[in-house]
Design a protein that fits this description.
single chain; rod-shaped; 4-stranded antiparallel sheet
């Protein structure tokens, strides 16, 4: 059975004696300074990445972000049902464009709702509702 240690006599017989004047205390086991430095750099980079990820998540949930991730219930305004939004979109389109032979579909994105005005199955106008206001979206 192989051993993972050698006794002193066997070690010296194989020519494995430590250099003259050097004791085990003089060369402690462990890592060299370069690998320790790399460990610290890796730990710092990981800490920065974790901090950035958590910070972005917190900012997105608090409503201070710019995109849909920055939505909160406080920024939504009064709750409006999807059916009410559909009717609101149809009324807006009829009042501004004079066409009543259209359909409307509503999609809720969380921070805003989009109303698609359809004519013959094609989107002719996109409207958005956010914070109690209805506004037109640019054509895509």
């Amino acid at each position: 059975m192989p051993r993972d240690y050698h006794d002193r006599q066997e070690w010296e017989e194989q020519g494995g004696a430590a250099p003259a004047g050097e004791t085990r205390a003089a060369r402690p086991p462990g890592k060299d300074s370069l690998s320790t430095l790399k460990d610290y750099v890796i730990i710092i980079l990981l800490a920065v990445l974790v901090f950035t990820g958590v910070n972005n998540y917190i900012l997105a949930r608090s409503g201070s972000g710019g995109g849909c991730g920055g939505c909160s219930t406080a920024s939504r305004g009064a709750a409006v049902s999807l059916e009410q939004l559909r009717r609101l979109g149809l009324e807006y389109y009829a009042a501004n464009y004079g066409d009543t032979a259209v359909e409307a579909q509503v999609r809720d994105f969380g921070c805003h709702q989009e109303i698609y005005i359809l004519k013959n199955g094609q989107v002719v106008k996109r409207l958005a509702y956010r914070g109690g206001q209805l506004y037109e979206l640019p054509e895509v």
